[in-house]
Amino acid sequence: xxxxxxxxxxxxxxxxxxxxxxxxxxxxxxxxxxxxxxxxxxxxxxxxxxxxxxxxxxxxxxxxxxxxxxxxxxxxxxxxxxxxxxxxxxxxxxxxxxxxxxxxxxxxxxxxxxxxxxxxxxxxxxxxxxxxxxxxxxxxxxxxxxxxxxxxxxxxxxxxxxxxxxxxxxxxxxxxxxxxxxxxxxxxxxxxxxxxxxxxxxxxxxxxxxxxxxxxxxxxxxxxxxxxxxxxxxxxxxxxxxxxxxxxxxxxxxxxxxxxxxxxxxxxxxxxxxxxxxxxxxxxxxxxxxxxxxxxxxxxxxxxxxxxxxxxx
Length: 313
Prior knowledge:
single chain; 313 residues; alpha/beta; 8-stranded mixed beta sheet
């Protein structure tokens, strides 16, 4: 495990709307950093109300008023100071609030959920902030598949829920995008087959709030084949940003070159190499998504650099 020269936990935020891939992304990053050295916290556990109570009072899970935001702040600050917390637990299967869970602070902490950047006090606790926004078409597909196969809803119920939550998505979730150091969007490429999540394009908006690696070496060795591109552009607010695009059809050879480059930049973590980028393919067998793998590794790179004291946060 790389030495943590800051002598405090390094905290990653992964924020986005429902069914954008927060848990999948977080699990792969935890694998890279070493699951025994990572605490994963879901801010959805801080709901004030059960599912039945939300239906009665008309407050959705996306509304800060329906969540204990002040307790989230306290718990993030405690974890950053190396102290344990007694985290609430929301049961997505039953919609009930379960017995709280004792969580010890660990060298790395991943905080994923809907409302992780809601307040300044919360945002100040993170070393690296990620915002996920896949294309809406893709998000709807993922939500329908997840909620019908794992949570017992019908497609009609899921679509009705999405419609009902549109106001809260626009007013409470999407404004958090502006705080992401990296904004990640997975998108379907042209000619994409339904259900093929292995070959999605990954678009990374890289803000200068973090010192990102130099991708020039890998850009110069692609020989015109589908791989990665890097472009300097401006975000929605007119501020300069880099946009890194990973083609969903990148070859295993080119993906390996970028992977090796990133591992070479974090020699402190070279012993942590794991099989990452796994998703469920046909018949529930695991397959490797190279864009997902490289995305997880890029985020882990930033976590390790923060841990060895190269980032002033």
